[in-house]
Structure formats: structure tokens, C-alpha cells
């Protein structure tokens, strides 16, 4: 049994913290005259937004089958990641851990918060090496483990038995970043929330939901963790405009499903067509909306695509000679394929022939 004790791992200053109580926190409900928040009485966006984003949480609670108090809405996943460091990690003392290659924000956020990040390499087939992790699990100063599944940029999910082993064994917080879960054949870990009081699941409206410009991410966790998140967040972290856009989207799930399925369909098509292209050496299986492909000379292929005004993500510093290609519209994907066909394989081989 996991002897997880939330109070033991929250920073003492955060435990002592009394949350700012806004005008909209103190009076809830409907009134006729609002003279409590020094707002301007004129205009349409003159009022402060709902600090608790109740309407969004009510819809998400139904859609995801969780309680409203197990939901936190953040200014992108970035805010969810940053708050985790600020709530649990004493700067200059505590540590966090993640696996590489993975999402770059964990290390940036760790550095901003002066927390040292242990980066364990994934195995050859991009899985977690449980033996190398084992020695760290007992470290008193290790507070956070980030698991990105499906993983960016490798595209695969991690083995469920390994993830659940970590959740059982580790006495700190495990954050599963599910930014790409909507594209995946695997289930979200939301259904296991009640089993693991140390689990935070991070999702986002930036990928499958098509709202990267809106900056909204969602954390699902035990209500005691969510309480602390609410205490630490800026009072009005999600604007009225953003709340409205999210509500519209959540009220039109059929459209969401259609768009998502088009992208998944396009991914399968693109994968088949890429297999026909000579300079593509390998296509990694993907549970996300991108494909990681190995080419003979990633820098050269990347530059030649840039010359044709097509931007991919050069990941060759993380995975040798690999490009990460986001699934675009049908027209965009066709343009990519045509561009790749025009790249001179001979010249893209130059470096590897040395
Ligand atoms: C894109 C992405 C996110 C999304 O971040 P937002 O701040 O919500 O836009 C989160 N995690 C991973 C691994 C991603 O690739």
C-alpha cells in the first residue's frame, strides 16, 4: 500500500498560505447590483470572470465522469506544470524526475523554479527502464515524476503496468501528461483517479480540441490536491472570453469527434504514403497527431523543407536523424509529400557517406 501523505510533501509556505479571497469568491449567486469589485459599470467585458470556472467544470465533470472538485483549469498545461513545482518543490533543495526524450517544458519549468531535474533515458523502444528508476523512488527530496503518455516526440504510450507500479511505489506526485490522449487507442488514467491519491493527470485544449490559441489546460486529481492548486493560482487565471470559447466547444462534442477522426484518418494515410518515399528510413508508430520519422540526414531534409516553405520539427538532437511531423490538413500533407519527393536523396546522404 502507498503511504502517500499529501501534507508531508507540500512546501511548508504553501501549506500555511491563505488564498486570496476575491469579491467573486465571497459572494456567489445572482444579484442585481454589483458594487463589490471596483469594476467599470459600462461595457460587455467589464466584469471579472468566474474565478472557479464552474460552468466549464460542470460540463467536464459529466464528460469525464469525475467530480467537479477533482478538476482544475489552468492557463495552458504550462500553468499546471509550473504550479506543481511551486506547490511541491522547495527551490534549491527538492528534485523532479522525467524521462528523455520527452516534452521540453518540464526541464524549463524545473529550471525556472530552481529545482534539479533527473532525466532518465528511455529504453531502445522508448519505454521506461524500471531498473534505472528504482534507485530514485525512495529519495526523500524527489517530489515529482513527469510521465508524458502518449509521449512527445516519440509518439508511443508507456506500459500500463510500469506506470501503475510507479504510482503505487512512489510517495511523491506522479503527473501523467495526456496532451495527446484524445488521439490514442489507450484509455485515459482519469478512470484510476480514485485508486491513486498522488496522481495528477494533465490534459489540454491545445491539440485535439483545436484551441491552442486559447491557452487552456485541465488537471484532474484528488480533490485535496485540487484545493491546493486553487489556493496558489492567480485568482482570475482564465478570462471570460476563454471560458466562453471552451464552453462552446464542450457543447459541440459531435464536431470535436469529427475533426479528431479526420486527423487520425489523415495520419494513417500519411504514414502509408511516407513509406513509399525513399529518404524515409523509419516511421515510428504514433498514438498522437504527429509522426516521428527517421531520415538519412535530418538536418538536410529539414533545411530543404524549409526552402520549400514547410516547417517540421527537427528532433535530431533528441532522436538521431528524426523529424517530428504534425498531421496537417489533407492539402498540407499532400504538399509535404510532394516536397519530400523532390528532395534529392543523394544530397541528403552527403553527410552519412563520410
Ligand atoms: C503540446 C503539449 C502540451 C500543451 O501545452 P499547453 O500549454 O496546454 O498548450 C502539453 N504537454 C505536451 C507533452 C505537449 O506536447
From TrEMBL:
Domain of life: Bacteria
CDD domains: AAT_like
InterPro entries cross-referenced by the UniProt entry: Aminotrans_II_pyridoxalP_BS, Aminotransferase_I/II_large, HisP_aminotrans, PyrdxlP-dep_Trfase, PyrdxlP-dep_Trfase_major, PyrdxlP-dep_Trfase_small
Sequence positions bearing N6-(pyridoxal phosphate)lysine: 207
Annotated Aminotransferase class I/classII large domain residues: 41-340
A Pfam family: Aminotran_1_2
A Gene Ontology biological process term: L-histidine biosynthetic process
Swiss-Prot/TrEMBL cofactor(s): pyridoxal 5'-phosphate
Entry's EC annotation: 2.6.1.9
Keywords of the record: Amino-acid biosynthesis, Aminotransferase, Coiled coil, Histidine biosynthesis, Pyridoxal phosphate, Transferase
Entry's Gene Ontology molecular function annotations: histidinol-phosphate transaminase activity; pyridoxal phosphate binding
EC category: transferase
Coiled-coil residue windows: 253-280
Keyword ATP-binding: no
Catalyzed reactions per annotation: L-histidinol phosphate + 2-oxoglutarate = 3-(imidazol-4-yl)-2-oxopropyl phosphate + L-glutamate
Pathway the protein takes part in: Lipid metabolism; Amino-acid biosynthesis; L-histidine biosynthesis; L-histidine from 5-phospho-alpha-D-ribose 1-diphosphate: step 7/9
Quaternary assembly: Homodimer.
Family matches, as PANTHER family: HISTIDINOL-PHOSPHATE AMINOTRANSFERASE, HISTIDINOL-PHOSPHATE AMINOTRANSFERASE-RELATED
Family, as annotated: Belongs to the class-II pyridoxal-phosphate-dependent aminotransferase family. Histidinol-phosphate aminotransferase subfamily.
Name of the protein in its database record: Histidinol-phosphate aminotransferase
Species in which this protein is naturally found: Tenacibaculum caenipelagi
Amino acid at each position: 500500500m502507498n503511504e502517500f501523505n499529501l501534507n508531508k510533501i507540500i512546501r511548508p509556505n504553501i501549506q500555511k498560505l491563505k488564498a486570496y479571497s476575491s469579491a467573486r469568491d465571497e459572494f456567489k449567486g445572482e444579484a442585481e447590483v454589483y458594487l463589490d469589485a471596483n469594476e467599470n459599470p459600462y461595457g460587455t467585458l467589464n466584469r471579472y470572470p468566474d474565478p472557479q470556472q464552474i460552468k466549464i467544470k460542470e460540463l467536464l465533470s459529466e464528460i469525464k465522469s469525475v467530480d467537479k472538485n477533482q478538476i482544475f483549469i489552468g492557463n495552458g498545461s504550462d500553468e499546471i506544470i509550473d504550479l506543481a513545482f511551486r506547490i511541491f518543490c522547495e527551490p534549491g533543495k527538492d528534485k523532479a524526475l522525467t524521462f528523455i526524450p520527452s516534452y521540453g517544458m518540464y526541464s524549463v519549468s524545473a529550471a525556472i523554479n530552481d529545482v534539479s531535474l533527473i532525466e532518465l533515458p528511455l529504453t531502445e523502444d522508448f519505454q521506461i527502464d524500471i531498473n534505472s528508476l528504482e534507485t530514485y523512488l525512495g529519495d526523500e527530496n524527489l517530489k515529482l515524476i513527469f510521465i508524458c503518455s502518449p509521449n512527445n516526440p516519440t509518439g508511443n504510450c508507456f506500459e500500463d503496468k510500469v506506470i501503475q507500479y510507479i504510482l503505487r511505489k512512489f510517495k511523491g506526485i506522479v503527473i501523467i501528461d495526456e496532451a495527446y490522449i484524445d488521439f490514442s487507442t489507450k484509455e485515459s488514467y482519469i478512470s484510476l483517479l480514485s485508486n491513486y491519491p498522488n496522481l495528477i493527470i494533465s490534459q489540454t485544449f491545445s491539440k485535439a480540441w483545436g484551441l491552442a490559441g486559447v491557452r487552456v489546460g485541465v488537471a484532474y486529481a484528488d480533490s485535496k490536491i485540487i484545493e491546493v492548486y486553487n489556493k496558489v493560482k492567480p485568482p482570475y487565471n482564465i478570462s471570460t472570453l476563454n471560458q466562453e470559447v471552451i464552453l462552446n466547444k464542450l457543447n459541440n462534442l459531435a464536431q470535436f469527434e469529427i475533426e479528431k477522426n479526420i486527423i487520425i484518418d489523415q495520419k494513417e494515410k500519411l504514414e502509408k504514403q511516407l513509406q513509399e518515399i525513399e529518404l524515409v528510413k523509419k516511421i515510428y508508430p504514433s498514438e498522437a497527431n504527429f509522426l516521428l520519422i527517421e531520415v538519412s540526414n535530418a538536418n538536410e531534409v529539414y533545411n530543404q523543407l524549409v526552402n520549400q516553405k514547410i516547417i517540421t520539427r527537427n528532433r535530431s538532437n533528441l532522436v538521431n536523424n528524426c523529424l517530428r511531423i504534425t498531421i496537417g490538413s489533407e492539402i498540407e500533407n499532400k504538399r509535404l509529400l510532394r516536397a519530400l519527393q523532390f528532395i534529392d536523396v543523394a544530397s541528403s546522404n552527403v553527410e552519412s557517406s563520410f
